[in-house]
């Protein structure tokens, strides 16, 4: 890997040399999946890159009766299993693990927060973490308020000063509708100020999502055509092959709309549709995103049926393997009416996008894992040519591939070599893999580092979360009142219910096969 980086001239000068100030990060819910799969591997990878602060500590907080030694051992196994760099390098691990400790604490017991406070003071003294703290809420969301209250009561949320800082990272789900998101925001604000709150949406940490902004705002040629004058519609697809794995308990209360659309997909939509910010600073970027989210047209109750499709997978085959239906998954209600697929048409009421539909679809147990944004341009005003098959030529499509096979491609019409004028669509493309020849960091690496720097550009601001919940809550409300579709209505391993195709066909369009 190191050699590849040196050999590739496009990588030159790309290393981020800045390192954040010393700090300690407390993970509430340290025995959970997120810590093992994402947080620890991300921190370990930052350690390999030499990007962690010179003095850095992680404190795992959970009620598992562990010791620091056994917690370190568990974390090593987790990193060994989930890090993008495996096996663990014993030398890097040794140094990194010296900064890991464990507090056996209950979220509800105020005394345990005093123990935590004592541990943080010890770390300041012995490891030089400088009084800077990040509290990471990786606990069950119903515990967020309790943790916040107890942190406040134990005096662990210091006053912000030039000398030291305290920040809180809040994982999704951030509420389950607009009102609960407002309540949670209010509650966080009883203890933290807005600039201390980092609401995480890991999609924003993906290189390819950040590149959307680079693509749009560092290249002059796209802005003039980035509007209703040239764009017919936009399709955003987030398809997953996995089912709900062992998260049935959570997922059955959430569903695809809350789990994927309200957060990740609306974030994708907002970076695609936002106006150019005046600077690339946190508030300037988020101001523009909020404006876009607020411009999403409310879907009236009697229109919800025409603007959305819900699906739930039954048994089927994915990648040659027979898989159970959603209702047969562990911890899922056998009569569950939770959607595992959703398609929705959103309209953005502003000058740039008036009349351009944004079609969003997301589903579990699809045939292929792919996240893609396809900008479909209008057809030429006066067609001179036909395609090889005699059909009208397909219009240009700019496809931003978020994952996997990260890259960007542009579909254009080209003349097939030969004596006759025959045209066919071809793709011009850029692939991360072959251009930069380097593995992209995991989204959490970037976001954890940004949080240590205090840069909230890639985190969602209060008004942004609420603006994203508003149109979604209206749909959920209507869904809860009308007769639901007959579930299951798509086979695992298919592209979703037939109704999703009919939904596009009604608009004279079709889903692109990504
Ligand atoms: C999470 C959802 O936020 O995102 C999961 O809760 C989903 O249900 C995951 O599988 C998808 O993330 P990624 O990075 O694999 O696209």
List keywords for this structure.
disordered N terminus, 36% helix, 18 strands, binds 6-O-phosphono-beta-D-glucopyranose, 514 residues
Topology:
Elements: H1 2-7, E1 23-28, H2 33-49, E2 56-62, H3 68-82, H4 90-97, E3 100-104, H5 110-127, E4 133-137, H6 144-153, E5 166-170, H7 178-191, E6 197-199, H8 207-217, E7 231-239, H9 248-254, H10 256-273, H11 282-294, H12 304-307, E8 308-311, E9 313-314, E10 316-318, E11 321-323, E12 341-346, E13 358-363, E14 370-377, E15 397-403, E16 407-415, E17 423-431, H13 432-436, H14 443-453, H15 462-481, E18 490-491, H16 498-505
Parallel strand pairs: 1-2, 1-4, 2-3, 4-5, 5-6, 7-13, 9-18
Antiparallel strand pairs: 7-14, 8-12, 10-11, 12-13, 14-15, 15-16, 16-17
Helix pairs in contact: 2-3, 2-14, 6-7, 7-15, 10-11, 10-15, 11-15
Structural write-up:
The radius of gyration is 24 Å and the shape is globular. The chain contains 16 helices and 18 strands. The protein has helices spanning 2-7, 33-49, 68-82, 90-97, 110-127, 144-153, 178-191, 207-217, 248-254, 256-273, 282-294, 304-307, 432-436, 443-453, 462-481, 498-505, and strands at residues 23-28, 56-62, 100-104, 133-137, 166-170, 197-199, 231-239, 308-311, 313-314, 316-318, 321-323, 341-346, 358-363, 370-377, 397-403, 407-415, 423-431, 490-491. Helix 2 packs across helix 14 and helix 7 runs antiparallel to helix 15. The longest helix has 20 residues, at 462-481. The chain is an alpha/beta fold. It starts with a helix and ends in a 9-residue tail after the last helix. Strand 1, helix 2 (33-49) and strand 2 (56-62) form a beta-alpha-beta unit. It has an 8-stranded mixed beta sheet with strand order 8-12-13-7-14-15-16-17, with helices on both faces. Strands 3-2-1-4-5-6 form a 6-stranded parallel beta sheet, sandwiched between helices. Residues 1-6 have low confidence and may be disordered. The chain binds 6-O-phosphono-beta-D-glucopyranose. Residues 172, 240, 259, 371 line the site of 6-O-phosphono-beta-D-glucopyranose.
